[in-house]
């Protein structure tokens, strides 16, 4: 009897598996086939009585029937349409297309599941991984109620049984299937979004086909973590804030794994340690969980605990937690790698008995110098410390909070002592692990980016911009003179000629300075690299530059915090010495340094635009391929990169650059129609976050680096819904926040008018329930539109109230809506009166319906950051708003790209010519100021007429010869009564007028103006009367000389007569 026949008598699954592995190594495929056949027969007979008492087991791919595999393979393509995506991967471009709205139903069709998962994840909906599945294919099962999703055959050489098809699909398999079917850039986006959702991230991933282990290091590159570390210094708690790219963060790492099958959930235990309000790790009690899963066994996941610097923090510093899925005995390679990298090892076992393989593994761990914590599920003993900082603890008959509390205390004690740190980047050095960044295309892009970044390494950000981006520094002066050119005074032609000459000199200087090594390297890389290499190059450049900026900003913030503390301490002591002044000066310098410490790809692209505009205007010879710059930028815009529309530092729109760029877009796409959607709101109100979640965009969102200026991003309307719209693309315009610390009133009003004027629709983003912050700006926008009659505009707006926790806010604020409508209409009427226009309500200028165009959003975070996940209610609000936008967009024809280009030109030129209206807070303020100017004219006329009467009186006295000198004080005394009357009238006006609260801001200025006017009047009359007196004296002197000459002539005549 041979070995195969022996196995028929006592069937053992593990023995069959091991035997098959050995037979394959020794090339005995004939015996392998016999064993597979045996396994299939045993599988088919499992329902027979003689097998009822046998130990249950799982079937591996070696013991699945080939006939079943063929049958299921025919059904599979219609059930999970991702097979083609395993070779032809999903890309970010697939997500950037505007498609049908995400369905909010309780279950999802199998064919839609991958797309629904991605779309909901992009909207920061952490429930994306819990999407239940509706069975579409009746061939597989007759049950109408079963929720299935068959992905098992996708990466497997064999099929699963019919029974497995009637089980719930494991949600983590869906996530991993999407991960495997995405290209590297979409993987990075998915992992970044999962991190924002406070979910665990894949660290070691077995390839579903080859079983090779990969570390997806590239996918972590965009993730930054912020936390507050608490340390005890001088008997007090010192808190230090850190913001670090997670790949470079050096933290302790706690590795959890199990040996054997457990009655408790390891992942659930880890959740209670990290965040007891949110399931960071998917555990057996999570919605949709099931025992059957294909793509998770052997996957190692990682998550970071980030403390908030509060007394109730679980740990005082950032800690990485790693979890190995499945039985670690079956995944020795992953287990050994993570044991080596960890600071603390936590192993869960059912029991500790001699002779077991798990016991051997624990004995080896016990010999290591690293701390070890053994959790035994069938033991009731409490925590016991053994030697070498090792612990064991029983879990039987103990509640989860008790276990996690005691385990947390042990880990705190261990980590308070010296321990090994873990850095994600070190995974690239592990042998036997494939790293995604070792891909040749990725390495080529990184090498080009490193060449660029090495030039600026070690330099301060402000020095980098001054040294390598000189055209932007010169641009500030150019913009200032260009604005003055639109508001000439005095000798207009001469002044215009001088300013044009200065502008040309600046352009020539830009041409001469446009040969920095950094710009040469950047543009050469864009011109020479292939498409994928170029994508990697831009990503790596942004990642590496961000790392520089983050480090710089962290140091500045730390210095600022220390200096601010010193200033407050001195103020509390009422110290008014030079030391306080010195500290305040240093604090102001740090504030300015913080403002200029931003540096990103947008600055490099801005330099490209300035180089192009300078060379285009001067037509200077250059070795640079500056003429190709618009085409390069157009390619990036078409591929989904944001393009700067307004320079946020100079407050300038580069018309020549944008015109050429959009012309290139037209050459490549045709003169397509676009729907322009813009957003406007105060600083840090969540504008960019909202747009990114709504459309999967890439606008900068961190509080340390808010949007400056305006950016636009092009989104294609998908073929599925294109028939419902009259345009092919949506152009989204994101803007910097209004009322920022350094922004002027003029800048805010100008930016708001530009953004609202460009958009077919503008989202007015408001933080909270009260729109008061935006009232004033909108009034200025309305009046500016009325003044710019030559620019034909037809904008519309939707108000979005963010961070409104009350779900009944919409119903409760009906009265508020009415008041908003009345306020806007009142201001529109006032503006119309000022500008002599025929507008009776706000909607006559900007389309707006208070009943449908006011939306309320829930708060973004479900709890307190940094460990809080996004609020699902926020994601639902995002989807609702997106549906409303698209519904309204269906009624619009949009505009062609060429029309949009002309609109930018016309609108910006009109804004440049408009000066007066932007200097005010709102329309009422303009009206009040104009009334004040009328009154001021009356007051000055009263003084002038009084002085004219005094002048005439004194002139008569001088003519009569009764006054030889006019004293300055006498003139003041003579007009003092009238001046006092005017002062009294002024005081009464400023104190009794109905708009006295608004007038108070100008009172000091106008009181000084009236004093200066009086002084100027007195000096003028004094000068004129002095001239009259001098003239009178000259006449008298002349008369005296006349008599003298007459006498002399008479004497001479007499003498001459005597001689004759």
Which tags fit this structure?
1060 residues; alpha/beta; ten-stranded mixed beta sheet; eight-stranded mixed beta sheet; 35 helices; 52% helix; elongated
Which strand order do you get reading across the main beta sheet? Answer: 13-14-12-11-8-10-9-3-4-16
Question: Count the strands?
Answer: 24
Tally of individual helices:
35
Gross geometry: elongated
Q: What fraction, in percent, of the residue positions are helical?
A: 40-55%
Taking the alpha carbons of the first and last residues, their distance comes to 181 Å
Overall pLDDT? 80
Structural class: alpha/beta
Q: What is the structure about, briefly put?
A:
The protein is an alpha/beta fold and 1060 residues long. It has 35 helices and 24 strands.
């Amino acid at each position: 009897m041979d070995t195969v026949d022996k196995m028929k008598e006592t069937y053992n699954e593990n023995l069959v598996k091991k035997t098959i592995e050995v037979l394959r190594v020794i090339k005995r495929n004939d015996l392998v086939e016999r064993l597979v056949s045996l396994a299939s027969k045993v599988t088919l007979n499992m329902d027979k009585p003689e097998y009822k008492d046998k130990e249950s087991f799982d079937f591996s791919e070696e013991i699945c029937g080939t006939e079943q595999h063929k049958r299921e393979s025919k059904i599979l393509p219609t059930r999970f349409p991702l097979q083609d995506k395993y070779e032809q991967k999903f890309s970010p471009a697939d997500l950037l297309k505007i498609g049908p709205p995400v369905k909010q139903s309780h279950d999802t069709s199998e064919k839609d599941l991958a797309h629904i998962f991605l779309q909901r994840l992009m909207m920061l909906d952490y429930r994306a991984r819990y999407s239940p599945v509706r069975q579409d294919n009746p061939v597989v099962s007759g049950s109408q109620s079963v929720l299935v999703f068959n992905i098992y055959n996708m990466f497997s050489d064999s099929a699963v049984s019919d029974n497995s098809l009637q089980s719930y699909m494991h949600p983590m398999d869906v996530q991993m299937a999407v991960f495997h079917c995405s290209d590297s850039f979409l993987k990075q986006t998915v992992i970044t979004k999962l991190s924002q959702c406070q979910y665990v991230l894949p660290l070691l991933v077995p390839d579903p086909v080859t079983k090779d282990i990969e570390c997806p290091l590239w996918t972590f590159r965009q993730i930054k973590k912020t936390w507050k570390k608490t340390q005890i210094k001088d008997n007090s708690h010192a808190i230090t804030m850190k913001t670090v790219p997670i790949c470079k963060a050096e933290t302790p790492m706690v590795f959890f794994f199990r040996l054997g099958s457990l009655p408790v959930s390891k992942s659930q235990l880890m959740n209670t340690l990290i965040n007891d309000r949110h399931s960071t790790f998917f555990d057996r009690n999570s919605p949709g969980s099931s025992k059957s899963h294909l793509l998770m066994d052997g996957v190692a996941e990682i998550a970071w605990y980030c403390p908030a610097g509060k007394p109730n923090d679980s740990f005082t510093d950032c800690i990485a937690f790693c979890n190995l899925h499945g039985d670690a005995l079956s995944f020795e390679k992953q287990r050994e790698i993570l044991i080596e990298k960890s600071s603390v090892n936590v192993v869960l076992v059912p029991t500790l008995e001699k002779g077991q393989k798990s016991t051997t593994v624990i004995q080896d761990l016990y010999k290591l110098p690293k701390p070890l914590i053994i959790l035994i599920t069938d033991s009731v003993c409490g925590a016991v410390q053994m030697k070498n900082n090792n612990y064991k603890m029983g879990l039987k008959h103990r509640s989860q909070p008790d276990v996690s509390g005691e385990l947390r205390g042990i880990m705190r004690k261990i980590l308070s002592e010296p321990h090994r740190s873990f850095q994600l980047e070190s995974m690239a050095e592990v042998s036997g692990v494939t790293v995604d960044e070792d891909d040749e295309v990725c390495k080529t892009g990184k090498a080009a980016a490193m060449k660029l970044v090495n030039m600026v390494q070690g330099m301060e950000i402000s020095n980098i911009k001054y040294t390598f981006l000189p055209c932007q520094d010169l641009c500030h002066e150019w913009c200032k003179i260009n604005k003055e050119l639109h508001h000439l005074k005095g000798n207009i032609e001469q002044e215009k000629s001088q300013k044009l000459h200065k502008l040309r000199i600046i352009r020539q200087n830009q041409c001469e300075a446009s040969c920095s090594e950094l710009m040469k390297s950047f543009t050469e890389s864009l011109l020479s690299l292939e498409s994928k290499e170029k994508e990697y190059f831009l990503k790596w450049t942004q990642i590496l530059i961000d790392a520089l900026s983050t480090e710089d900003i962290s140091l500045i913030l730390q210095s600022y915090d220390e200096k601010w503390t010193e200033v407050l301490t001195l103020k509390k002591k009422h110290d008014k010495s030079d030391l306080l002044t010195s500290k305040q000066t240093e604090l102001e310098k740090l504030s300015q340094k913080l403002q200029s410490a931003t540096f990103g790809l947008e600055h490099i692209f801005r330099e490209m635009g300035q180089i192009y505009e300078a060379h285009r205007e001067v037509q200077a010879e250059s070795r640079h391929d500056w003429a190709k710059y618009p085409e390069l930028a157009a390619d990036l815009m078409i591929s989904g990169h944001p393009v700067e529309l307004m320079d946020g530092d100079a407050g300038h729109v580069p018309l020549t650059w944008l015109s050429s760029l959009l012309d290139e877009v037209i050459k490549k796409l045709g003169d397509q129609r676009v729907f322009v959607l813009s957003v406007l709101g105060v600083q840090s109100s969540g504008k960019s976050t909202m747009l990114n979640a709504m459309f999967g965009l890439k606008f900068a969102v961190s509080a340390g680096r808010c949007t400056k200026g305006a950016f636009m991003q092009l989104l294609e309307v998908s073929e599925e819904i294109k028939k419902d719209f009259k345009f092919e693309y949506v152009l989204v315009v994101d803007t910097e926040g209004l009322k920022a610390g350094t922004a002027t009133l003029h800048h805010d009003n100008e930016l708001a008018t530009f953004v609202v004027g460009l958009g077919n629709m503008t989202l007015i983003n408001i933080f909270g329930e009260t729109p008061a912050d935006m009232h004033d700006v909108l009034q200025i926008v309305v009046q500016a539109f009325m003044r710019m009659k030559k620019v034909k505009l037809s904008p519309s707006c939707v108000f979005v109230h963010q961070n409104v926790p009350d779900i009944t806010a919409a119903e409760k604020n009906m009265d508020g809506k009415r008041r908003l409508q009345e306020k806007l209409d009142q201001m529109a009427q006032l503006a119309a009166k000022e500008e002599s226009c025929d507008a009776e309500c706000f909607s006559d200028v900007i389309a707006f319906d208070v009943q449908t165009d006011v939306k309320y959003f829930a708060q973004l975070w479900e709890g307190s950051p940094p460990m809080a996940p996004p609020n699902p209610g926020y994601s639902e609000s995002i989807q609702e708003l997106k549906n409303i936008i698209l519904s309204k967009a269906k009624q619009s024809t949009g505009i062609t790209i060429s029309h949009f280009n002309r609109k930018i030109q016309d609108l910006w030129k009109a804004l440049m010519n408009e000066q007066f209206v932007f200097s005010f807070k709102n329309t009422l303020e303009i009206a009040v100021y104009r009334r004040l100017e009328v009154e001021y004219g009356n007051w000055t006329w009263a003084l002038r007429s009084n002085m004219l009467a005094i002048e005439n009186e004194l002139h008569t006295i001088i003519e009569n010869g009764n006054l030889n000198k006019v004293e300055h004080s006498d003139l003041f005394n003579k007009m003092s009564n009238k001046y006092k009357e005017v002062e009294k009238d002024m005081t009464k006006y400023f104190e009794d007028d109905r708009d006295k609260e608004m007038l108070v801001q100008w009172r000091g200025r106008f009181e000084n103006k009236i004093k200066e006017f009086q002084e100027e009047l007195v000096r003028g009359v004094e000068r004129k009367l002095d001239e009259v007196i001098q003239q009178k004296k000259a006449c008298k002197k002349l008369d005296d000389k006349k008599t003298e000459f007459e006498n002399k002539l008479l004497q001479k005549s007499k003498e001459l007569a005597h001689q004759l």
